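Section: Multi-chain targets

For targets with more than one molecule, the full set of components is provided together so that the structure can be written out for the assembly as a whole rather than chain by chain. Components appear in the order listed by the source. The example entry contains two components.
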Amino acid sequence: MTTPIPAYNPAEIEPKWQRIWAETHAFEAEASHAKPKFYGLIEFPYPSGAGLHVGHPRSNTAMDIICRKRRMQGYNVLFPIGWDAFGLPTENYAIKHHVHPAKVTRENIDHFRRQLQMLGFSFDYSREVDTTDPNYFKWTQWIFLKLFEHGLVFRDKTLVNYCPSCKVVLSNEDSQGGKCDVCHGDVVQLPKDVWYLRITAYADRLLEGLKTVDYPENIAMQQVNWIGKSQGAFVQFPLAGTEEKIEIYTTRPDTLFGVTFMVMAPEHPLIDKYAGRIANMAEVKAYREECAKKTEFERTQLVKDKTGVRLEGLTAVNPLTGKEVPIYLSDYVMMGYGTGAIMAVPAHDQRDWEFAKKFGIEIIEVIQGGDITKEAYTGDGPMVNSGFLNGYTNKKDSIARAVEEVEKLGLGRAGVQYKMKDWAFNRQRYWGEPIPLIHCPKCGVVAVPYEELPLRLPEVEDFEPGQDGKSPLARIPSFVHCKCPKCGGDAERETDTMPQWAGSSWYFLRYVDPHNDKVFADRGELDYWMPVDWYNGGMEHVTRHLLYSRFWHQFLYDIGEVSCPEPYAKRTAQGMILAEDGEKMSKSRGNVINPDDVVAEIGADAFRCYEMFMGAFDQAIPWSVTGSKGCRKFLDRVWRLQEKVVAGDSFSPALNAVLNETVKKVSEDIEKMKFNTAIAQMMTLVNEMSAQPTVTVKEMETLLLILSPVAPHLCEEIWQRLGHAEPIHHQPWPAWDEAALQKAEVEIAVQVNGKVRGRIMIPADLTKETAEQELPANPDVQRITAGKTIVKVIFVPGRLLNIVVK
RNA sequence: GCUGAUGUGGUGGAACGGCAGACACCGGGGACUUAAAAUCCCCUGCCGCGAGGCGUGCGGGUUCGAGUCCCGCCAUCAGCACCA
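Its structure, encoded as tokens over all components, is:
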């Protein structure tokens, strides 16, 4: 007699298996390089004070399922976890509550780790990294110094995006729309010395590399748009009566004959240089002040209504026609893109057209095909009014010819421009990696010697940023004052720290050898594990984080530190989980669902199952409490199947067919991240099994094997109860039997003129020819087609028979 | 404005150009219970008593056959926003 089956109690079995996995080091990557490897990666979390909400584990669960399957398929799997722990929220919390950010970070990490462990993820916790650990950021600083050594770090005085509330300089990426990424307050423009990383030097490589990796189309597209490469030409317009030349950038140098004016950005430096020759300088100054008041956000709101002012007394000479054209100032031209000045061709650029209409400037057509009295024509057509370019109809040829001519004159050259800007790399905050540079009055900027890394953060009492926009580190004399490593004289340290993006730009490399104190990672480990085979994360990181980390990796490849040019072979992204009201989950809306509560209610396995079942993985989807309970019901049914288990392989051919179908579908769907349909198919199988008087051990085991990546605790427990000493995660992934999928008879639909009119059973192996000849004579078919003239018969094997009648 | 995605029952969602609505949730009915919960069984796109008809945002088209492909709209979401 079998012992009675106790009730399914996840609160008991889940902690039990989590303990066993930890004690047996079940999911640590094997040191040996004998097996084929699989490196699965999720974006390491920022350990915020709020803890996880149910959105976070979606990515983790998906990758956990894939990694658990890979282990069963015989791979040596690296599935690491770590903490992207530098960052403003922690620092702001520290300021508010007067605790050290390191302490806050430690507590938050412990909280996050407990939550992740509660969900049973098969992370290799022996390889945890923490970006705030000096043993980690030593190598972040090391990479920075390598970038510095190779001329990819530079300092520039520019207008920066400054957040008065956070008291910090922001990158363009962090201040989209004129709002601070952290506090969402208004950003103002402030002149400042800023450290930049020359990511634009890698713009083409970042584009080219996309062709060699497996990213979905929409992710690759976003990166391409972000980089924003355009081909064109730089052309110089002499300033009449001077030796000065105004350089512009254009994508259509072939429209030079249509230039009727020029526009410069209000901040353009030539204005000050020639202030003496500008008759209406007072007016110009007033306009510039007006523009300076506007944030970038406001400037972009005035899409239609163009403003500007003419520079009286200055004109520019068209290098091809010799004609003098007026120069205007307008804020529709940005100092930060191209050269800060444009040649205006109102006939063929809508913004120029609007400006010309408003200021009464001539509009000359040089490309035929539109009606330039109504709007600018931006299409193709034959060139007119354009001297040697007349008659050209091919854009490529006319552009090439125009570039050739300006080159001959020494007034232009072909060139490319990118929307992407260099990466502003300093923050005036405490809780970041100190930038390992020293300002020496004699030697200039000098790198901290490698052997002095890590350059640690000094202990301070007060983390509040300085009122002058300086880092709290600037207030610590013992940190600031140092000796120049080159000349030995008195010098001062850089007091800014790195942005949060720094630590996350290379963490995947540290995972392969996290405890190494000689190099950032052993070369043999890098060669074995890299590249990351599959990286899943959020859509919000597919531009910034992905480009930054690809940039650093490509640089490390160039200097011979890693052997693969791209860090991630495959990238996917999950959709966001929304609150039940369909809104984004947020503390302020009060609609956050805490995974602790869900696990207490339905258990971790049901939680994981629902996260994957609720909808298409890459779509945003609202959480549903009742929906999540459906997954718990499903696991209850699996648990109760134990009551039906009897010895044997297979009794029911019908069940055997569903079983094999399910193994096949689950195996294939996991690879496509179609977890919802994989689980739906397992539900169908369980419904089928529940309907049987008994199920065999073999059938039950197969179900457990394919379900175990989704519901690992439950499957381990039943597996053990079936008498196995070896854990289920060590078992091979089951194969399916194609032969078992074959059925003798299939039901097909009978259509008349494409509309379903009946169903018939036919032998499964009926060929198309035989079916189309014989089936119309089938009595059931005849009943449907009685009295009609058959024109055509179409048979789709296994699906349907369509009879076209008159 | 540009780019991308999405649009299917009361809800989340399935569907190599081939039986639309798999699998769930909700709801309804029944069984078991003193009762409730849990569980099990049945029903559940819309209209219609029925035969049948209508149905995948809207309008066209291709096809024997369209949720799926093509053309033109509309709506929602996301990203970028005067990029010369």
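The radius of gyration of chain A is 34 Å.
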